[in-house]
Structures are given as structure tokens and as C-alpha cells.
Amino acid sequence: MDIKQLRALLAVAETGSVTRAAEALHIVQPAVSRQLKLLEEDVGSALFERGRYGMELTEAGEILVEHARRALLELDRARAEIQPSDAQISGVVTIGLLSSTADLLAEPLLNEVKIRHPAVSLRISVGYAGHLRDWLESGEIDAALLYNPKATPTIQAQPLLDERLCVVGPPSSTLRPNRPRALADLASWPMILPSAPHGIRNLLEQACPGTGTKLNVVLETNAMSVQKQLVVRGHGFTILPSIAVIDDVARKQLRAAPLSDPELQRTIVLALPNTRRIAMAVKAVCSILVLEMKRAVERGDWPTARWIAE
């Protein structure tokens, strides 16, 4: 098993075609077929089967693709870091952003990285806190924004800001930003929420017993876009940080009111792994991310957020 074989595997998996994979790798088609054959002989199992839509991964192929992506990413990182000490910062950096923060942070982060560290290749992964934590621990991302986690043997966490949550409803609702609502008020409302163990759901599960509230959850979804779309169309209400709906409220597609319960706020932290070395490029991009978050709070672009980092 070698790098050429793994790159051929990923190219066919991503394109669904040996021909298109050969074009992407700038080699001839028989060479790709040869690499796949050698790889299958090495692992002792078929990696692809022909389906209606081209080359489809077998179960063995899916397992190998998952590990191959991580292995090649680590090699790309190592190659970028092996350079003279006086060279400019370079490398591949993958940052995990919470779904609610991506629209606010992705573009300014990219712009500033381009200006300060043009040799850095930035990748942004977006997801719920539970997904981001899993990706961080598995090595798929280098750093992430998470909710409320404490430092653990595998993760170091730097608290950055506190933010209040709000209840979000359709345009026809009576929610108002100057009229806070208590969690107990929502007991009979149809709620559309993420499933456990994702951040906001965990906060709600912890807060509900203390207020004697049992929420009426009519749908669980781990896509924030689906949450908001269903609320817009009148299927229920949801609970989100204000930053996630600021534009929707401004366009009058949604209405929102802050939650008055003091425990219903999230602390966003910058999380880094304790189990592997932090590359210079990762440290540089994280510094820019923290700076852009602080600037957003100071400009007032992040409503209800309070900066707490020293």
C-alpha cells in the first residue's frame, strides 16, 4: 500500500469513475486501474462495485477511504511543516465552526488569513458542537469552536464569549426582542430542536428539570437550516443563539425573544487537541479567529454576546 494507490482510491471514490479520476490525477486510465487492483490485492477485498451511477464503494472500500483521507491529510500537514525555520508560515489548516457562527466568521477569517499568511491553505468544516468535537478528537479538524466543554485529557479549551439563547418563531408569532420569555412559558409550544448530545439540546436538558418544564419536541433535526425553514413555515418554534437568526429577523422571516433563564446561555470556547502537536500554521489561524470574534462582539455584530477571554 502506497500513497499513489491511496490517492487513486480517493479520486475514484470522489468522482465515481476511473476515467474522471485519471483526469483529476493527470495520469492515464490504465494506471488508475492498476493502482486499484494492487490495493485490492493488498487488503484482500474488493473496494468498488459497478452501480447505476458508476463506481460505488463496497463496505471495505468505505472503511479504507475514511482512513486514507486522514492518512493523506496528515502527510500533507507534515510536508507543509518541513521547511526552513525562517520560511513563511504555511500548511493546511482545518477549522471547525459552529453552524450558528459560520456566516459571521468564515469570510473575515478567510480574508485575514489570505493577507497575513498567504501560504496557508484554509479549510472550514461546519457542524453542531457534537460533530465538531468528534472530528477534533479523530484528527479530521485541527481546531474548533465548541459550547461549554471543560478541558479534558484529550482537549484543551479556552473560553472566549458568553451568549444568551433566544426562542425563535414564525413571522406570525408574538415574540419580541424586548420581551424576554421564560423556559416554562414554552412547555406547550411545538418545538423543533437538535437531538442530544448536541450543545443547545444539552443545555435545555439540564435546565428543564430545574424549572419543572417538559418541552413538547415535535421534531429533531441536526441541520440548523432545516430548523429555521420549518419554523418559517409555521411548524413550530426553536431555540437558537441570536447570532444564528439576526439576518432572518432583520428580513422579518422570523421573530425572536431572549430567554430570561440565567442558565440558558452558552459559553463558546476555542478547542484544540491535547493528543497531537499543534502546528505553527494552526496557532496562527486560531489567533486570527479569536481576533475576528472579538472584533464582531465589539462592533455589535454579535448580539447578546459578552467577551470573556483575557
Automatic annotation (TrEMBL):
Belongs to the LysR transcriptional regulatory family. Residues 1-58 form the HTH lysR-type domain. Keywords: Activator, DNA-binding, Transcription, Transcription regulation. GO terms for biological process: regulation of DNA-templated transcription initiation. Signal peptide: none annotated. Pfam families: HTH_1, LysR_substrate. The keyword Transcription applies. It comes from the Bacteria. This is LysR family transcriptional regulator. Gene3D superfamilies: 3.40.190.290, Winged helix-like DNA-binding domain superfamily/Winged helix DNA-binding domain.
